[in-house]
Structure formats: structure tokens, C-alpha cells
């Protein structure tokens, strides 16, 4: 359980670090997964993600 927790926390920290320099929507993707896991009625909610043009 400790290794799994370290892997999840480490990967989330890496995503946040990459997102702060690249300015992508990786944070919104990972937060969406966490919110769906925590809240059972989250599928009915609408979250507004900023649109990114390349």
C-alpha cells in the first residue's frame, strides 16, 4: 500500500510540475479522475475547462 501511495502522489506531483512549465490541461484531466473517484454524483456536474489553441 505504501508503494502504491508513493506512486500515485509522485505521478500527480510530476504532472503538476510539467503542467506549470508547459501550460497544458493535464491538471484538469487528473483532477477530473480524482473528483469522479471521490464524489459519486460528479458525472452529473459540468466543469468548464479553458480551451487551448495550438
TrEMBL record:
<dbReference type="InterPro" id="IPR025256">
    <property type="entry name" value="TM7S3/TM198-like_dom"/>
</dbReference>
<keyword id="KW-0812">Transmembrane</keyword>
<protein>
    <recommendedName>
        <fullName>TM7S3/TM198-like domain-containing protein</fullName>
    </recommendedName>
</protein>
<keyword id="KW-0472">Membrane</keyword>
<dbReference type="Pfam" id="PF13886">
    <property type="entry name" value="TM7S3_TM198"/>
</dbReference>
<dbReference type="InterPro" id="IPR042502">
    <property type="entry name" value="TM7SF3"/>
</dbReference>
<keyword id="KW-1133">Transmembrane helix</keyword>
<dbReference type="GO" id="GO:0016020">
    <property type="term" value="C:membrane"/>
</dbReference>
<feature type="domain" description="TM7S3/TM198-like">
    <location>
        <begin position="1"/>
        <end position="53"/>
    </location>
</feature>
Amino acid at each position: 500500500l505504501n508503494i502504491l501511495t508513493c506512486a500515485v502522489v509522485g505521478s500527480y506531483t510530476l504532472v503538476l510540475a510539467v503542467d506549470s512549465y508547459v501550460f497544458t490541461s493535464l491538471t484538469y484531466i487528473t483532477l477530473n479522475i480524482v473528483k469522479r473517484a471521490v464524489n459519486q454524483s460528479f458525472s452529473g456536474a459540468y466543469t468548464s475547462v479553458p480551451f487551448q489553441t495550438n
